[in-house]
Amino acid sequence: MDSDLLWLILAILVGAFCAGNLNRLRQQRKKKLNSLPPGDMGWPLIGCWGNRLDFSSHKFNIGNIWSFLRAFKSQNPESFIDNFKQRYGPAGIYRTNLFWKPSIIVCTPELYRKVLTDDDQFQLGRIEEIVIDAFEEWSEMKRRILFFPEVNKISFKVMMTIFLGSWTDNTVIASMEKYYTYVFAGLFCTPINVPGFAYNRAVKAREMLVKGIQGVLRERKQNGPNSRRGLVDFIREAEDENGEKLDDERVAIILLMFLITGRESSGRTAAWATVYLHDHPQVLQMAKEEQEEIIKRRPSSQKGLTLNEIKQMKYLSKVINETLRIRTNIFTLFREARKDSYLDGYFIPKGWKVLVWQSAVHMDPEIYSNPKQFLPSRWDDFIPKGGAFLPFGAGTRSCIGADLAKLEISIFLHYFILNYRLEQLNPGGPVNYLPSSPDPADNCPAKVIKIP
Ligand code: HEM
């Protein structure tokens, strides 16, 4: 994966962006240091004892990565930012050192938007490559594929690339996908750990997956640093104050968590959006016109999509919202009452689960008229009242991959809408809502046809 892209993803996940030209900064350092936002550059390892703000030695600075990982591991990622707020005031902008990069963290909506609208230079190359290659392969087959599982494969590849880096061998990714599929199936079956049962297969597959990731990490140690590194490289190199690192098994578990939470949901949403677009030719036409306009405005020297272009896809984002509403990925979210409490005047005993039934809210005719109708235009100037549209959850457990998911889905739809057509075998066929999320019962056999 491009290092720019990796950093973009990190920026989306933690709301940070890295400082730019180091030489220029060094020259102007004295003058500018005083105007840096409040914050600290974390713990030095070697080489920068004198001045924590010496950017020239940031490579040797483990920075704040350990507190970042600790917050993440303790299921309370916000505590990382809360800590800054407590120590340096509520400005919402702080300096730090994360993943060997001196960084500015921004955490107010205004600043967040400002940062994200300033970045024409980001290239989304590797995700685009994965998507384009898959479409070419499908269309060249000239026969039906099972559309939903195939889109999930793309999603898996994108996530592995972000996690492991763009130089990871395709065959390694393919074998890991096979094991991952068993692990995922194991989440929804009876835990009978006896050979021949799905749960036992999942346990074994998990071991193989961990071994596979350990193999990749070992190979990296042998081959030395590589510029196309992935998130995993940063995580496993991080050390705490006592010099402790996460072992490979824990790194593999973090990867598994990302895959389990992100792979099917992004893939499913991209696949349903494609199906809905093809079932609604007028909507498809409007989406296509928007994408063509974006290409027309593009300078001839530019290759591939930029983040700014994705932000211009206003109509497409309504298509994605409408898909997330009508095909809610996780129909209910769970919480547990930690103490006896009251909700809307009703008593909730300690230990009882509270299920937030998302799909009921998303299909409530009082909020969304004709809720079963796929109608992206309902999002024109429509801001749902609090709690009425939360496909990525809310609060401390909300989805950390929401921006990445929207990015991936937008790239997928951009290339599909402009270049391909979906010919389904059974349009409008039955849908399975269990074990967890809506999928076409027949996995949507379809031909992907290249538009001449
Ligand atoms: C359309 C795509 C996606 C949807 C609809 C979605 C939805 C959600 C929802 C509703 C939650 C909250 C669960 C709860 O409150 O109990 C959640 C959590 C989470 N999501 Fe996503 N997600 C998507 C994509 C992704 C991706 C691509 C990633 C990985 C990069 C990801 C990583 C996570 C993680 C790690 C959590 C757990 C956060 C925590 O417990 O602190 N998700 N997601």
From TrEMBL:
SUPFAM superfamilies: Cytochrome P450. GO terms for molecular function: ent-kaurenoic acid monooxygenase activity; heme binding; iron ion binding. It comes from the Eukaryota. Its main location: membrane. It is found in: Membrane. It is a single-pass membrane protein. Pfam families: p450. InterPro entries: Cyt_P450 (IPR001128), Cyt_P450_CS (IPR017972), Cyt_P450_E_grp-I (IPR002401), Cyt_P450_sf (IPR036396). Heme binds at C399. Belongs to the cytochrome P450 family. This is ARABIDOPSIS ENT-KAURENOIC ACID HYDROXYLASE 2, ent-kaurenoic acid hydroxylase 2. It comes from Hibiscus trionum.
